[in-house]
Every structure is written in structure tokens, then in C-alpha cells.
Amino acid sequence: MIINFCGGSHCASPKKESWTTLLADKLDAKIIGLGKSGAAHEHAIKSFNSTADITIFCWPNFTRLYNKDYSLTFTTCKEHVNDNKVYKAGYVYYKYLYDHEIAKERQIRDLFWFDEKVLTNYTGTILHIWGTEVLYNFKNGNMAEQNTDKKYHTKIRPRANHMTYEDNIKYAAKITSFLTRY
To answer: Does domain 2-63+98-181 have CATH number 3.30.310.10?
Structure first.
């Protein structure tokens, strides 16, 4: 069995105590992809691999900018504005050009296209997890739960995927139960 995690930091950790690894171990599955911390939704789309038996999407907030090398959020761009030109350009974009409603509409359009044109042809199991507000209801796949960031997010160290080890165990069990329903 092959499992692919696509999305942001909620599914980015390869640590043995992360829910992604715990889930793969429970399913006796090989992980072929993980999320990327600070990634935009385009990363989840680009990292989709149709050879996986199970794909779990952890959809990030629509406010993020896609870049293949950098994680660009308003916060990271502001914090690193003097580090390099990419962060500076991101900061200037957010300060002068960013439109909240347009960013939201763009993600909805992208997800509609991805659902209708790509996921329709996928034969594996799909699970969608929203870290924040649910912006799109997919025709293809099932939704596990929403608002995971608010429920499990912690600053306690050590952590994996923003969660304590105990919460990673609980979350892996929860996702296992969702997957066994389908």
C-alpha cells in the first residue's frame, strides 16, 4: 500500500512520532510524499501522485503564495523581508497588491478545476482535511474533519505537525477510523 500526504505543515513531518508516520505504520503503507511547511494550496495540487493508493490532502489557508522554494505567508515575508529578494517581493505583494477576497476566490477556482479535471480520474482513496475554513466541498473524496489547526495546534516542544506526541497518536487513530469507513 502506498500513501501520499499533500498539503502544508499539518502533514509535513516525517518523524516517527508524527501522525503521518503512525498512520502509515498502522496501514503498513509506504509514504511517497509529505506536505511542506508554510506551503500554499498549489503545493498540494502539484505534489499529488496518482500512483498512491491513498491520498490525504491537508488543505492550507488561501492566503499563502506559491513558490517552489520558499514558504510565503504574510508573516514569513515580514519576518524575513531583509533576508533575500523573494521574501522582500512577497512582503511588497502582501502590503500593496494582496486582495483577501481574490485570494479566496482563486483557491476555490483552483480546487474546483483540480476536483473536476484531475481527481475525477483517480482510483485511490481520497481524504480531505481542512486546516482552517472549508472553502470547497469536493465531489471526489471524503472530508475527515475541519479546523484541525485550532483543535490540535500547540507550541509545546517537541512536536510534529504542530501537535504533541499524544495528539499525533489520537489524530492517527482518528484518521484511521475515517479511512476504514471508505
So the answer is: no
Beta partners for residue 56, in sequence order: 5, 127
Q: Which pLDDT score, from 0 to 100, does residue 166 have?
A: 87
CA distance 27 to 47: 21
Please check whether residue 115 is in contact with residue 125, taking contact to mean a CB–CB distance below 8 angstroms: no
Q: Read off the pLDDT of residues 123-181 as tens digits, 9 standing for 90 and up.
A: 999 999 987 788 999 999 998 865 455 555 555 555 677 788 888 999 999 999 888 87
Q: Which of 65, 47, 70, 71 is nearest to 57 (CA)?
A: 47
Q: Where are the domains of the chain?
A: 2-63+98-181
Alpha-carbon distance of 118 to 115, in angstroms, equals 6
State the virtual CA torsion across 158, 131, 94, 84 in degrees, nearest 10: 30
Q: Which residues, other chains included, contact 20 with Cβ-Cβ below 8 Å and sequence gap of 6+?
A: 5, 11, 13, 14, 31, 34, 161
